[in-house]
Amino acid sequence: MSERGFTCAIRPMTMSDYDAVIGLMSATPGVSMRDADSRAATSRYLERNPGLSFVAEIDAELVGCIMCGHDGRRGYLQHLVVLPEHRRQGIGNALVECCLTALDALGIRKSHVDVLKTNESAAAFWARHGWKRRTDIDRYSLIRGGGSNA
User: How would you write the chain as a 3-class SS string?
Assistant: First the structure.
């Protein structure tokens, strides 16, 4: 895709992208980092969900990322991040579309995304693109054998 005269390349995420992706996520307000974002956990995630997470690059600089997985029935998108100076140029949309297309190829038609209640810009992004906020369910979590940041 072309953005501001630059070519934005989107490709599947690999573990060689880990440091750049974590740096991007850590520097982005509203994105929570957890123990589950460790190198080992991310490696397991990418192995379990091959070809479903993506990065965007402009001139070999990582400018965006998204992680995606599934449980066999539903897709789950996580950690959509685009550098502020590259937002509103279609990169986020393209990353999401890559995930949805890959999930569709697996026969998975419904996907979910979790957004922290305090992340207003993320909530606005998803709503602008047709995603509906659920009010009919509550998510419950349990952490076994770990700290509060699991």
Answer: CEECCEEEEEEECCHHHHHHHHHHHHCCCCCCCCHHHCHHHHHHHHHHCCCCCEEEEECCEEEEEEEEEECCCEEEEEEEEECHHHCCCCHHHHHHHHHHHHHHHCCCCEEEECCCCCCHHHHHHHHHCCCCCCCCCCCCCCCCCCCCCC
